[in-house]
Design a protein that fits this description.
This protein is of the alpha+beta class and 158 residues long. Helix content is 28%, strand content 30%.
Length: 158
C-alpha cells in the first residue's frame, strides 16, 4: 500500500491534488459522549449552568470543520459548501450521539472535516458538563459514509 503523505525520501508531504477533477464530495462522521443519566437529563433540559450545551457544541463543531486545515497539518484547506452537526439523546445508552455531515465540490474529500466537527462538538459537550461529571467518555468517533472522488462510495453499516 502506498502512503500518499510520505515522499520517496520518507518525509511527510502534502498530497498534490492539482491533477484531480472537481467532484461533489460528502462525508458523514459519528461519535458519542457517554455519561451518567443525571448529566444527560441536565444537557437535554438545558439545566447546566454554562447554558445550552448542544447549541454551543453545534457551533463549535461547525467552526472546527471550517478550520480543519489549521489543525491537521497535511489537510488541504477546503471551501465547504455545507456542514451540519446534529445530536441524538440516547436515553437507553446514557449518551449524546453526534453526527456531522460535510459537503464540498473539489479535488479532495471532506472526511477530516466531518471527523473534526464530531471531535470538537464532543469536547465542547465535555467542557460544558464537566462541572457536574468528570467521568464522561468520548467514544466511537468514526467515518460512517464517504461519497465522491476516485475511490467512490464508502459506507459502514451500524
Amino acid at each position: 500500500m502506498e502512503l500518499t503523505h510520505i515522499n520517496e525520501a520518507g518525509h511527510v508531504q502534502m498530497v498534490d491534488v492539482g491533477g484531480k477533477l472537481d467532484t461533489e464530495r460528502l462525508a458523514i462522521a459519528r461519535g458519542a459522549v457517554v455519561m451518567r443519566p443525571e448529566t444527560l437529563r441536565l444537557i437535554a433540559t438545558d439545566g447546566l449552568p454554562k447554558g445550552d450545551v448542544l447549541t454551543t457544541a453545534q457551533l463549535a463543531g461547525i467552526m472546527a470543520a471550517k478550520r480543519t486545515a489549521d489543525l491537521i497539518p497535511l489537510c488541504h484547506p477546503l471551501a465547504l459548501t455545507k456542514i451540519d452537526v446534529d445530536f441524538e439523546i440516547d436515553d437507553a445508552a446514557w449518551r449524546v450521539v453526534i453526527t456531522a455531515t460535510a459537503r464540498t465540490r473539489g479535488k479532495t474529500g471532506v472526511e477530516m472535516e466531518a471527523l473534526t466537527a464530531v471531535s470538537v462538538a464532543a469536547l465542547t459537550i465535555y467542557d460544558m458538563a464537566k462541572a457536574v461529571e468528570k467521568t464522561m467518555r468520548i467514544t466511537d468517533i468514526h467515518l460512517v459514509r464517504k461519497e465522491g472522488g476516485k475511490s467512490g462510495l464508502y459506507s459502514v453499516e451500524e
